[in-house]
Amino acid sequence: MTDTGRDELKGKVIQIKDLLAYQEGTIASRMVVNKPAGSITIFAFDKDEGLSEHTAPYDAVVTVIDGECEVRVGGVPSRLREGETIIFPANVPHAVLALTRFKMMLTMIRE
Question: Greater confidence, 11 or 27?
Fold first, then answer.
């Protein structure tokens, strides 16, 4: 079975933030890797778009690859800019808000 839409990325040098374009008034996403052990997904948020508070059963690593956002982890806000990373611990409520148009890479590690 092939990873439709992902196989063309394998073995090539890529600019991760160029894999996905912004879309006005919404959040776009593109899965880059999806395996039983985890996944990597790129998200592009238009300004003021966000993900409401939720939890996940696995640790999640968020790296900002363009722009700026605010995240809340366990109710504590943090501002992230391009090149910065935060780990959302499993089962801890977290949320994301785009302060500017921004892109992030989400790496989910499953146990």
Answer: 27
Tokens 């790496």 appear where? Answer: 107
Q: What are 40's strand-pairing partners?
A: 33, 107
Q: What is the secondary structure of 22-68 as a DSSP string?
A: --TTSEEEEEEEEETTEEEEEEEEPTT-EEEEE--SSEEEEEEEESE
Those residues with Cβ within 8 angstroms of residue 4's Cβ, 6 or more apart along the chain or in another chain = none
Beta strands 38-45 and 102-109, pairing class: antiparallel
Nearest to 104 by CA among 93, 89, 87, 91: 87
CATH topology of domain 7-109: Jelly Rolls (2.60.120)
Confidence at residue 26, expressed as pLDDT on a 0 to 100 scale: 97
Which residue in this structure is represented by tokens 């912004």?
22
Q: Report the relative pairing of strands 76-81 and 50-54 from DSSP bridges.
A: unpaired
**95 token code pair:** 């949320």
Q: Read off the DSSP letter of residue 77.
A: E
